[in-house]
Design goal:
9 helices; globular; eight-stranded parallel β-sheet; alpha/beta
């Protein structure tokens, strides 16, 4: 049994064959999927999908690329939903900052303000965070610590092998491992993976993005979590079954409503 802790099933690339995608996921042993909230505009779709399929859950948040849509009152409505398991994906992304110094400063200030607001929102509703960090490890970790994010914990989505962030394991954070681990040119993540506490490892696809080898160049989908699990097992010297069980139990602890659902099926 595998849990895909981060999959954008609300992306338009799944509109034509969502049923088939979920059927293939089941065949591959994927027992549950979490849709991260990235944009206020797509939250209705994410919630609808989560309520149509027992094995699908969603989160409510705003990605650093979609800050103009931040609406805390609206997010609160979604966060009350029984199938909403987290706040996010939210965080800091400095990869596409403007060239001018003034514009960069303004963009970073806005990202920090909205990220901080979502950390506080997570504490307010008592739900974990799904955190997006790109080229902003130091600032993101500082904000998580300053805002006391350990009160709710969460997951570092698409963990980028920044070893400084391993300190957050003691603050209740998990590490989302996806298709990048399987890339032939991936060097840092396979090296750092064994350093992550086993009880903090979870699996994700970030589908339709970051498709694992040997399907790179094609649309990613939750069934491909199995390829990530197999690579994790190889690197960690464990059986595939052991990694499945480990990451599933971790995902159930990270997202309690998902855990209750899976435990109820036994």
């Amino acid at each position: 049994m595998i849990v895909d802790t981060h999959c954008h099933l609300d992306d338009s690339r799944f509109d034509e064959d969502l049923e088939e995608v979920l059927a293939r996921a089941k065949e591959a042993g994927v027992a549950a999927v979490v849709i991260p909230g990235a944009d206020i505009a797509t939250l209705p779709k994410a919630r609808d999908i989560a309520h149509r399929y027992e094995e699908v859950f969603f989160a409510a948040g705003v990605h650093p690329y979609d800050l103009e849509g931040y609406d805390e009152a609206l997010l609160l409505e979604y966060l009350q939903d029984e199938k909403c398991v987290a706040v996010g994906e939210c965080g800091l992304d400095y990869y596409r900052l403007p060239e001018s110094e003034e514009a960069r400063h303004e963009e970073i200030a806005v990202q920090k303000r909205v990220f901080g607001a979502q950390i506080e929102l997570a504490k307010r509703v008592g739900k974990p965070l799904i955190v997006h960090i790109r080229d902003a490890g130091s600032d993101a970790m500082a904000m998580l610590l300053e805002h006391g994010a350990g009160e709710v914990g969460g997951v570092l989505h698409c963990y980028n092998a920044d070893e400084r962030l391993l300190e957050l394991a003691d603050e209740g954070f998990y590490y989302g491992i996806g298709g990048v681990l399987t890339f032939k040119n991936a060097k840092k993540l396979p090296h750092v993976l064994p350093k992550i506490p086993r009880h903090r490892l979870v699996v994700e696809t970030d589908a339709p993005y970051l498709t694992p080898h040997p399907h790179r160049g094609k649309r990613n989908e939750p069934a491909y979590t199995r390829l990530v699990v197999e690579k994790m097992a190889e690197i960690l010297g464990e059986s595939v079954e052991a990694i499945e069980a480990l990451t599933t139990e971790n995902a159930k602890r990270l997202f309690p409503p998902l855990g209750r659902c899976l435990d109820g099926r036994k």
